[in-house]
Request: fold
Amino acid sequence: MYYGMLAEITGHANELWNSDENLTVGKFRSQILEKYPALREKKFKVAVNQKIAEDFAPIDPSAEIALLPPFAGG
Amino acid sequence: MEKIHKPKKVFVQGPISPEFVSKSIASHQSKTAIGAHAIFLGQIRADQKESGVVTAIEYSAYEEMAEHAFHEIREKAFARFELTCMHIYHSLGTVPVGEISLFVFVSSPHRRAAFEASEFVVEEIKANVPVFGKELIGENGAYVWKENS
Reply:
C-alpha cells in the first residue's frame, strides 16, 4: 500500500507484490526502487503488518506491506 | 488494580470545533479526583511557501496502523504519568487555516503530570503516527506535502 506522495509517484494506492519466499524488507526496498526509480529521491519507511520494519526483517508472503512518507500529524 | 484502557476513536472528519473542546471540558466536571487538565490544540498555520500561502491542510492516514499507534501512546502515557484520563482527537480531510486539527486533553490530580504528559503525547504523535498532510496553496489546486520536523 502506498500513502501520500508515494501513491502519486506509483500511480496507485494498492498493489500485489509477487516475490520469492525469502523476501526481506531490504530486498523489497531494492525491488520497489527498481520498479519506481522516482522513489529513490524520496524518504520513506516500510511497515510490515502495520509495524515499522528494519531492512533485515523477513516479509511473510501474506504480509501487508506499506510505504510511508514522512509523518505530518498534529 | 491495573486499569485497562480500551482503544478509542481518535480520527474525526474535518476541523475540531471549539464547541467540541468546551463540551469535553464540561464532561469532566463530575470527575472530582482531577485537579489539573492540560490541553494542547494544534492549529493550521498560514505558512508562506515558495508558490504561495497555505490555505488548508488535507490530512490522510494509514488509519488502522495510526489507531494502534495512538493506543500505544496512550498506554505509555498512562504508565509514565499519574493520569486520571486522556483523550486524543485528530482531524482527517481538509482543515482550513486557523482551525484546529489536533486536540490532546490529559487530566491528572496534579499539574506537573498534566503538563508533562501533554508534551509527551504531542511529541509522540508527531514522530510515530502515520498521518500525512497536503498543504493546499492558493486557489489553483497547488500543494506541497507537509513533513514534521
Q: What stands out?
A: Chain A has one domain: 5-68. The longest strand of chain A covers residues 45-48. The first helix of chain A runs from residue 5 to 10.
